[in-house]
Give the backbone structure.
Amino acid sequence: MANISIKLTKTMETEADVYVNAGLYDSREELVSEALRYYFRTALKANVDAAVKMYGSGEVSLGRAAEIAGVSYEDMRQILKGRGIGIKIGPESVDEAEEELSKV
């Protein structure tokens, strides 16, 4: 595990100490580690949800949805499939292709 150094504001230190002094965490470091684990779990789910919504509404391509979600192209395909969203392969008409190009 890598060691990193972060600076907490005075307010963050005070709030962290409340949890440490209450015995919920052994140290500020433990609290910050738990906060980061929670953030990564929550942020990933929110990013996936946003990417699914944007792909489903036609706002973004499958590749862009994968970037937003922070997952691979194939993982995004599986996520969409699991949520009942069909994968669209290419534009269905010249007009649709021109519209997609205008968004770039």
